[in-house]
Amino acid sequence: MNKNLKRLIIISMLTAIAIVVSYLESLIPIFIPGVKLGLANVIILIMIYEFKFYEALLTDILRILLVALIRGTFLEPVFFMSLAGGLTSYFIMLGFSKITIFTALGVSALGSITHSMAQVLVAALLISSEAVLYYIPFIALLSILTGILSGLITDSYLRRSISSMFIDVKCYNK
Prior knowledge:
Number of domains: 1
Order of helices and strands: HHHHHHH
Strand content: under 5%
Oligomer: single chain
Radius of gyration: 16 Å
Largest sheet: none
C-alpha cells in the first residue's frame, strides 16, 4: 500500500477517535461547570509529536467543528470557547514540544491550563463580565491535574508507539 495512503488512513482514524472521545467526554457529568477530562487532547498531543504540525492542527480543528455540529452548539458561545481553547493550547503545545527539556507530561499540562485560560477569557468577553475571571484559580488547578493525566497517557503511548508499524518514518516535531 502507498505510504501516503497509509498516512492518510492513520490520520483519519486518529481524527475519528478524537471526535468520538471528545463527544463522549462531553457526556460525562463533572460537577464543576465547563470542566472536562480533556482526553481527546491525548490524540492531538500524539499527533504533535508524531505527525506534521498541520496534520495535527487540522485534526484539532475538525474535532472542534464536528463535535460542535454533532452536539448542536456550532456558532454558540460554547463553540467559540472550545475553538479558542483548542487553538491556543495547540500552539502552546506545539511550541513547547520543540523544547527538549519539556516532556509530553509538561507539554500536556501547559496545553491544558492554556486551554482553560483561553476559554475563561472568551467567556468573559462573551458575557461582558469580569466575574467569570474569579473562576480561574479553581479551573487552573483542575487543568493542571487533567493535563498531567493526559500527559501520562501520551507519554506511555510515545514510549511504545505503534505508528512506526504503519508509517515508515515518524515526523517528530515537523
